[in-house]
Design brief:
The protein is of the alpha+beta class. The protein is built from one helix and four strands.
Length: 73
């Protein structure tokens, strides 16, 4: 797969990624599988993975400021 920014190859990897759920709640998803560019570090989250992230984020307690969730396929 090619990077939409620079055209270089994307490589499968995992990363920790923050999502802002509300004005005061941030969720860090650990070990999130992404395709990341080898040149410019642009990333792509595939649709099935993002659907799972949306499911995880919908269950977050928004009364807390920070929550860390491990991604499990």
């Amino acid at each position: 797969m090619k990077c939409r920014v620079c055209g270089s190859e994307l490589a499968s990897t995992t990363t920790d990624f923050p999502f802002k759920v509300t004005e005061r709640t941030i969720v860090i998803v650990k070990n999130l599988p992404v395709a990341q560019c080898r040149s410019c570090s642009e990333y792509l989250i595939e649709d099935p993975v993002f659907a799972k992230v949306e499911e995880l984020l919908s269950k977050v307690d928004t009364s807390v400021e920070l929550e860390i969730i491990a991604f499990a396929a």
